[in-house]
Amino acid sequence: MVDRYIRRDIRGLLDLAIPDDEDANNAASALATSISVLVEKLLSGGNRQPSYSNSSNSRGSRGAATRRGGSGSRSTMAGKQSVSKPNSDSANIISDWIIEQQNAQSTKGKSVKAPSRNSVAALSKSFDEFRQWVNSNNSTNESTLYEPISQFFCFVASCLKAVHTPSQSVCPRRLVVPFCKPDRKSADGDDNSRVDLYLNLPQLDDYTIGTLIENPPEEKNKLPMLNDTFAIVEVKSAIQGIGKAMPQLFQYTRGVYNEQYDRRFAWGMAVRGKKVQAVFFGPNYALASDTICVDDVNGRANLVKLLVDWSFCESHRLGYDPAILHNKRLRYYEINVGGEDEPDIFIKYAWPEATEDANVDYRDEGRHLQKITKTIEAEANLDGKCPRYQSGGRVMINRRVGNEGIKAVEDTSRSILSDGICQQLDDDQDFVNGLRVHKVICMKGVGKPLKELENVFELICVMADAMECHWEIYQRCKILHRDISTNNILFSGSGSSIKGMPIDFDHAICEDDKDAVRHFERTGTLPFMSINNLEGGKLEHSLLDDWESLLYILCWVGTYGWKKKDEPSERPYVPQRRTVASAASSKHINEFDDSIPDIENLMGLAHALRDKLVDEHEDGKKRSASKRSPPRTPNNIPIDAITPRKPKRQRQSSSQAKSSRVAGSVNCEHRPNITPRVQRSGHSNSHMNRGVPMSTLQMERKREAKEAAQKTIVDQNVPDVAIPRNEGARSRADEISGLVVSAFESYVALAPYHTRLATQTSSGLAAMQSEKPDSSIDIGVFSDECKAIREMVRGKGRGRGKGKAKAAHERDMYPWVKALFSLIAEAICEADRILTKPPTAARPSVRQIVPFKHTDRTPEGADDQDRIDIALRVDDDTPSDSPYRGRTKPDYSRMLALIEAKCSSDEPEQQAAYAQLFKYSRHIYANQHDRRFVWGLTVCDSTFRICLLGQNRILSSGSIDVTTPDGRKALAKWLVNMSLCERDRLGYDPTLYYNGEEHRWEIKVHDDATGEFKVYEIISCMRISDRVCGRHTRCFRCKETEASGDVDEHGKPAEPREVLVKRAWAITAQNSDDKSRDEVSLLREINSTLRDSKDLEGKYPTLLAGGVVRITDENGETFDDTVKTAFAGLSEETLRDVGSRTQKGMAMTPIGQDIRRCKSADELIIAAADVMEVHSAIRKQCNILHRDISINNILINRSGPGGRACGMLIDFDCALRIDDTTDHKARSEMTGTFPFMSINNLEASDVIRTELDDWESIIYVLCWLGTSGINNVVGEDDEEMQRGGKPLRIYKWRNGDAADVAEAKRIDMHSDDNFVANIVSQIIKNPSYFHLKHLVVNLRKELFDNTRVSPKGRGALETNEDDFVFRFAAMLEQSKKEACWDDGCDENELDQFKRRATCAGKISDALLEAIKVARKGACERIAPSVEAVAS
Asked: Is the confidence at residue 1221, as pLDDT, over 70?
């Protein structure tokens, strides 16, 4: 594939980097020559002066013909000279050279200071690395070349930096340096590819010479950014062909194009041993220079000249578009296309195929769009369904053209090359590539991609609109699109006003155009191309080909969905036959994903469209230029195929049917998903982490895991948590354990005497089973790992290592650990069969716990690339003789336990294993919504530890050494118990289950008030749990399974209402009668107290049922779900250390929407005001303080009073009943969501928490949403933030520890100036956010600088008496004349927060009045738009 585009040994390719500016070219030539002379002096120890065949520094030094495409080469040094050993005077040579160059550049003739000793030492050290490359004997290990090559780039850049003086007339525009360490993955790439070297382009002032050569520690740990990468260097050893580097350069350069929107072409470099080739990636070709040998004088000179030219040349010579300005400091792009600025402009850049003459370009997209816009501009029914052309044309670049000087030329695939290179390509008969022209088009009517659609109904409406527009364009303009695909259909609007539109007319042809003769070419996107198109266009492309593409789109999205980010690797609908019937058969359509709601509507449309196309072919109508078939329009498709129909019950898949038959048994492997499938948000995609680089999140996770590992509690009784409660199951487990342990010991003892264990059974079992001489257990089917198991259980095979040796030894452990668990699982099944007499008798279900086949993999469902060692799953339906059957790749949604292996049993290794278990377990919680706790194992050498990862701490068993009989017995006993215990003992929640009879997921909610259970059908999971320790809060969108008995306005029975079911592990008080922090009790009190307040209706949740989750296991035993009952079997001391938590469930209504889905900033203001209004009412009337105001706990209720949207306050987990008996310690504890916690809260001060802390939190919430955006409107830096760019100031509110965040907030909130400069200035620059900015400024002033509070109670920064008197003397004198709200506080108290806490009620009233005024204005601004929508 690469050979099709690349051409090697292109003469004059390096001259493409020569600056256009004459002065810059002369300066670059002089400096390159001087640096080359320095290089040769250093290599020869100062004893040799190289000579030049062309010594001129002028532009023609390499010959004018060479520079502009001639056959000559770059300037050369005479002869190939040998390189001697370095001399000890290299530092003096470098120092003298720097002084000489600076004196030469000094315009005043004054002498300059000698360079610093550190700079000279750094340069000398850097060159020593390069000398190793020159003197190397063609190393066979490419990794040894990384550092010398990297240091050579640093050396040349440092030379340019060292000789730079303020008086220098022409300075380098940039430096060319490698990014940090070599062989790294990029932070913003879409794969895990490791690139050898990334070249960056910093400014001269960005680095010192020392940091250029010796990166500081914080720089070394950073991941490279493709967004900042200029070129990629691929290194191969001398024994490898340099051609092997080209495919990798192709692959990695693609990532550079994806991340840099201003790239026209790209540079690269391939290195093989001492040979180097520069590579130029153009629009439709790749060119490689002739070979540069670094052990040759000429080669070194040419390489230095290339680097210097890159430093001096204009940006368009490097491949950047001058019209697109990339502000790397603020990380955004600006595009200058001329004309007036207009909102919602869609600007498209592309390199389409074209002709030299723009007037006869029959595929010019701009011409097509102009005609379309002019023709259908007045069509009201197509408004919003078709892009509107504004302006466009060919991109012009200012560059030097021969002797004509600098002029504007068209940017084409030939103009970016020199005439000589173009001639070389023309002479190559095998190289055929058409002309491509750089074009820009500005359009109105911005749309969104299909992946943002909400449901099937919207998808069908968008498809119908797009094809209707496609049909109208063809009928009125005779323009045929020819590239219908998922990427070329966008939509705008939402709900009933949603509209679809086709875009991208690159391949379109106007049939009225006389020059449009290429009707038979192959165009389109491969998975969606028509059969005729795939076969090479035997028939002319017609309208039916585009309708056929639509059919393949429906098949694609019906099978894979439209919301997934990653395209599947396979292309199932690239047809192999020549009929539409075979390409999109009923079988393919019937394989649509059943978990997508209302998928049958999409099936109906696909079937109807397929039938129409099949009929068209079967009628024998030829699609040719002379006799074209009548086109099909949306009106020809049955109306029921497009009109959304009433949803039907989803069809039951085979796995679901199987689950329904064994609904009473545990079937973790084959249980169906909770439908519809939710895209896992995960910790990395949560709103609070928006824009935070994955590397930062990984560091936070590692730190959290390390801290948790250090607090691990060791309890010998941890394996006992898996002991079955049922007496019969316990007895059965003891019997099976006896057989398994004896068989295992016999296997270990007899193993050395068996040479073909795979075909033999354990002959020693007859003696072991003396009471059952006819029974035996065959556990010898895993012969490949038998030797490893024997060595490990006998204490052999141990080993330690460091670095790569250590990792390799850990990987060597995976096969025997995996085989050990498989061996025991097989023995358990075989023992269960033996103990069942007769064989046909019913026996208790024994689940088979086996490992996933693949090890050291990134499991499905992860939001990072971390690789786990081994994972266990439950496989009930796997035959005993094939434990590896089933899934091969680990999947967090099917995972029972994690296993982390270490090659040493030292304490640091054990701690590292604990930390990794903790880190990876968060993904199990996030993917399994019914998980209460997680099992895990660590294997350090031959020592096992069984772990429990619960809500508070890591619990670990003692050491289980499998080299001893007792250790093997303990491990086998635990696995037997896990195979027979109740489902809740595995960590699952039996109250969340799949109803096989009704084919749906259900959840039980226990109501403490009535003692009854209410059952709800789960529709979707709205909030997942993605942390190991904590409340594990999950929220499910559900509906009632029984009709409520109500009737609608027509007197008919009302449909079952939707409710929100919440599950969380709340901290419970030691005294069970203490309900001061019980969320269920608090909600009942709030509901009862505020029931008559109609103005607060819909602004707080209505509790339907709630209480402690009560579990009824398979034995019929019912008990409360607490830490004590979940971990029954642990010692009392351990349970005290773990802490007391109880799982509670609540069913509430109404269901709100995420606060980030506000339609405008005004709606956000209304929601915030509603929330704080009900917050104040709850505080005053119920004496309940919320204490956790955050973006997660504020919703939009669109079913509020009068049908308007209102804010709703939820999640009273951290709420506390406040009265005179409330413990002061409880009121001062740290609670809340980190970025929105008040300063007092973060510092855990002894100041009691009041409503002012929650008011402070609402300010942080409004600032956060104003900066990051709402309703899919994001801040200008948000996208760059996600790639690890420079963080906004507000992100300091989530990064670091509590003290760091508190300090940042103190500075930001201290004064109006600080607040406006640091925070308000970064709120989205949109007119609709003006009133939000005004509101947060007013709220901050009322809270921190209230004029009714004395000066001692204002501000946020700490101060002493002297500072206070000096700064606020005048204000203090004035306040003495007026009564202040905080006069009751001690006069000597300088803590502003304590003073404000004494008058919290009055300040809260002032804040409430301020936000109500803002709400009134927002309602007035929204009212006209609401009336327009209603009309």
From this structure: no
